[in-house]
Amino acid sequence: MDKLKTGDKVLFSGTLFTARDQAHKRLVEYIKYGKKLPINLKGALIYYCGPTKTLPGKVIGSCGPTTSSRMDQFSPALIKAGVSGMIGKGSRSKEVIEAIKKYKAIYFVTYAGCGALLSKYVKRSKVVGFSDLGPEAIRELEVEDFPLIVAVDTRGRSIYDSK
User: Fold this and answer.
1) For 9-152, CATH number?
2) Could you report the per-residue pLDDT of 83-139, keeping only the tens digit for each?
3) Contact 147, 11 (CB under 8 A)
4) CA 155, CA 132: separation in Å to the nearest integer?
5) What is the distance between the alpha carbons of residues 96 and 90, in angstroms, rounded to a whole number?
6) b/e for 59-78, b at 16 or more Cβ within 10 A?
7) Is this structure's pTM higher than 0.85?
8) 3-class DSSP state for residue 91?
9) Can you give the residue ranges of every domain in the chain?
10) Alpha-carbon distance 75 to 92, whole Å?
11) Residues known to be catalytic
């Protein structure tokens, strides 16, 4: 990921995990109290997404990104614990960007308002943690050619900087 630069477009194929506010809060609490995590955070790519209900014959419901800044209070701890990348929409706090630089993580954005389209790139989906959270449960997704744009690279350069 160190070779990727702000603004680069990527078609990602592989595994990512969905997690939103409540899942992030629990993950950080689990880390703080030494509890066993439902997923391995080492090298994980976290997608800020809470999919809609899956319709019959589909792999997943609409699965567009949510606003990333809502996860900013939790992200530095998760990056320190091994998360290598995040996917969402919108800018990130100074603290998150510092953690990205320190631990060589990366932040991607994807197309907002296109959840139905993005669902077509999901080949497999299963709940792997915090099922009681419903749409905010952690899901493991297998995706193919999932469209991403590097918003903050490993050096902390952001597409949101006006410099």
Assistant:
1) 3.20.130.10
2) 999 999 999 999 999 999 999 999 999 998 889 999 999 999 999 999 999 989 999
3) yes
4) 37
5) 13
6) bbbbbbbbebbebbebbbbb
7) yes
8) coil
9) 9-152
10) 10
11) 24
86-116 b/e (C-beta count within 10 Å ≥ 16 → b): bbbbbbbeeebbebbeeeebbbbbbeeeebe
Residue 88's identity, in one-letter code, is G
More confident residue, 98 or 55: 98
| Structure tokens, 52 | 């809609």
E strand or H helix at 148, and its extent?
strand 138-152
Contact yes or no for 9/146 (Cβ under 8 A): no
Q: Which stretch of DSSP H or E encloses residue 118?
A: helix 115-119
